[in-house]
Amino acid sequence: MGQDKGLMRLGNQLLVLRAAEILLPFVHTVTLLAPPDRYGNLGFPVMADLWPNKGPLAALCTGLISSDAEWSVFLACDLPRVSRRFVEFLVRRVRATRSDAVVPRTPDGWQPLCAAYHGRCRMAFEAAIRQDQLSIVELFDKIRPEAITPDEMATSGLSAAEFVNVNTPEEWVRISQLLEERG
Predict the structure, then answer these.
(1) Model-wide pTM > 0.70
(2) Within 13 A of 88's CA, how many CA atoms are on the CB side?
(3) Using CA atoms, how far apart are residues 100 and 94, in angstroms rounded to an integer?
(4) Using the 8-state DSSP alphabet, how is residue 7 labeled?
(5) C-beta separation of 135 from 57 below 8 A
(6) Which of 53, 59, 147, 170 is least enclosed, having the fewest CB within 10 Å?
(7) How far is residue 152's CA from residue 37's CA, in Å, rounded to a whole number?
(8) What SS3 class is residue 42?
(9) Domain 5-182 falls in which CATH fold?
(10) Helix locations, the chain, DSSP H
(11) What is the pLDDT of residues 32-66, one digit of tens each?
(12) Do strands 101-106 and 109-110 pair parallel, antiparallel, or not at all (unpaired)?
């Protein structure tokens, strides 16, 4: 994108604050996993990755280590179509599962950055980082993820469109226009 996606604005709201606002009704605390020097003035606790430059797995592991909660819900800020309805659905699944993670799985694959992970995942995640094995999805054979399927999403009135992320300026223009049209 050429810029920090979390600090981009959709309408008049920063993407990171939009994600935090979506999570707030469902969690005890929202912590931003980001550089404190850029995000420290946004009104939420901020935690830098314990393993800088190790990608999203390092952020998930940092979040799990810093949390005293049994479960942690993670929401990447570059998913501007994720809704409160989806997070509510995710949290209901967490309350009913015996798995180590609850992760949406769309026709495009797993969506590990809009998911919930039990504290039990810490050890597997940390071991993978130390071995420089940074793929979250490749760790799913070491933890017990429960998939939220496309059929379950459809039955709940949700769709895989919830997980469309923005990685290029062209995607940003398309998504921001679509969301502004929806209001």
Answers:
(1) yes
(2) 7
(3) 9
(4) G
(5) yes
(6) 53
(7) 40
(8) coil
(9) Spore Coat Polysaccharide Biosynthesis Protein SpsA; Chain A (3.90.550)
(10) 15-23, 36-39, 56-66, 84-96, 121-130, 150-155, 169-182
(11) 999 999 999 999 999 999 999 999 999 999 999 99
(12) antiparallel
- CA–CA–CA angle 20, 25, 57 (5° rounding): 45
| 8 A C-beta contact, residue 129 and residue 62 | no
Residue whose pair of structure tokens reads 């940390």 in the numeric block: 126
Instruction: Write out the two tokens for 20.
Output: 């935090």
> How far out from the chain centre does Cα 24 lie?
13
Q: Strand 13-14 and strand 32-33: pairing?
A: unpaired
The token pair at 37 is: 């020097």
Whole-number pLDDT of residue 20: 97
Q: At what angle do helices 121-130 and 56-66 cross, to 10 degrees?
A: 140
Whether 33 contacts 39, CB under 8 Å: no
